[in-house]
Amino acid sequence: MKNRLNNRLGLGGWLGGGRYGVDRYAYAFHRLTGLGILAYFIMHIFVTGMRVGGQEEWERTMAFFNAPVFKAGEFLVFLAFIFHAVNGIRLVIVELACGIGRPHVPAYPYTNSTMRQRPFVVAVMILAALLMITGGVDFYFMLN
Amino acid sequence: MRESRLWFWHILSAIVIVFLLGAHMGTMHMNTILNSLGLGSADPVDSVEVFRRSASPVFLVAYIVLLGSALFHGLYGLRSMLFELSLSKSVEKTIGGLCAFAGFALFGYGTYVAIVVYRMHGVQP
Amino acid sequence: MSDSKAAPTVVFEVLRFHPEKDKAPYLQQYSVPVTRGMTVLEGLTWIKEHIDSTLVWRSSCRMGICGSCGMFINGVPRLACNNQISHLHSDRISVKPLPNFEIIRDLVPDLESLFDRHRSVKPYLIRKDSHEQHHPVGEYFQSHQELINYIQFAYCIKCGLCLAACPTAATSDKFIGPQSLTQAWRYTIDSRDEGAGERAEQLYSSHGVYRCHFAGTCSQVCPKGVDPALAIQLAKKEAFVRAFGIRKQRRAARVAPPVENWVRNRDIPAPPTPTIEKSRA
């Protein structure tokens, strides 16, 4: 009887957006950036904890993290934060059922809440891109 | 409902984080632009600058609020993802316990650091 | 269409699996001549009639009502009967069983897990007065707006497409899922229902609405316009406003009293006399 084949998509199911549309990619990115920011944040608590050792300790720590590889990593965290924050604002709004429409009698052609909040997704991407570009200019081109 | 309450805090902490971490990211990573507009500092990680901020009561409160909100928000998010992995009830309980423990421990450590540095009253330039 | 005029053909790439013969599923290709208006389901029927009688799938009504023929067609869960081949704009049609369900054979998913979850949310009206519920004497009052609040979610045909598209369901076998959460909400918001408290245990559990993060694909693939994502977000919002005491608990609809001294509307003709005698049992 139990000779069934498991067909659960697994992690690929939430990581890959497939042919579903932009919201699904926003969903995957939101989780990935969230995990990245959390990992950085926990390290950040310990790195800034070096202040307890006084000014010299702090300056030594900052000199160590001044290497280009850490700067690039920091910039990635900055980009992740921007996406996570801007998309997060959209999620707070739509997950509290604002801007996704009201129940109605479905009549063909059907509309749905995902498409009704699509303009938010576009706005999120434009706003995130603008902030990322501004941050990038500040980060890399305005050092002096 | 317990899960409802946790989720409300997840949403409320998100709103706090957007403002506080937004300000933090702005001063740290958009410093050149902000400074040219007469806001913030040109080198926010300079030690004198860092210890001056750490000695301010406003920053002390903001640090602790941000620390708590971000830890809750991040660890609840992590717990959410792990709860979606078809784990057994006991493993889920362990994950919940570990997340809570990690949250309280990191919050304790971060608060300790913030208070110690606050009481240093800055450093000499 | 006459045989002399060559019909355009498409290639059906079908996932095959026989639990007693195959260790792993494999893809098999069939060339199918397409006629105007031909659906994917008709394509499969053509294969079964002309090429391979061992191909297995489940279907019934052929008109998007029964919800039997949900399949993973060209990377998106769809009803095979509801989608014309020409509308897929491809000469290769990939047909696989619905993901996130176990495969019984070929294109037949085991929907038992869906029905189990559906049952778990008590998808029926619950009244505190159980005697009244089991021995009804009249209908309940309900306004048009109260009907609108849930009627969309009552259109669900339990085809399982939303679960196949859901990213949470892809990893979690405990998530109650868009279909069942929507049904939980459909009865909770029904003005005739008093079972909100019983259903809240499931709806707001650690595998309930809060495991939805609005990827929105359930609503996009729903063939009946049910919009599960909307129902789930409404359930979250309800809990949120209740927690802050913004909205008060509503009272359940009353039973309409029997109509006394009624007079037939003259414009409505009397019913015809019964052709069989009424049972007196």
- Number of domains as seen in the coordinates of chain C: 2
Extract low-pLDDT stretches of chain C. none
Low-pLDDT ranges of chain A: none
Helical amount among residues of chain C, as a percent range? 25-40%
Number of strands of chain A: 0
Task: Please describe what this structure looks like.
The complex is a heterotrimer of chains A (144), B (125) and C (281). In chain A, helix 2 crosses helix 4. Helix content of chain A is 68%, strand content 0%. Chain A is built from 6 helices and no strands. Chain B has a single domain, classed as Fumarate reductase/succinate dehydrogenase, transmembrane subunit (3 helical TM bundles of succinate and fumarate reductases). Chain B has 5 helices and no strands. In chain B, helix 1 crosses helix 4 and helix 4 packs antiparallel against helix 5. Helix content of chain C is 30%, strand content 13%. In chain C, helix 2 packs parallel to helix 7 and helix 7 runs antiparallel to helix 8. Classes of the chains: A mainly alpha (144), B mainly alpha (125), C alpha+beta (281). Chains A and C meet through helix 1, helix 2, helix 4 and helix 5 of A and strand 6, helix 4, helix 6, helix 9 and helix 10 of C.
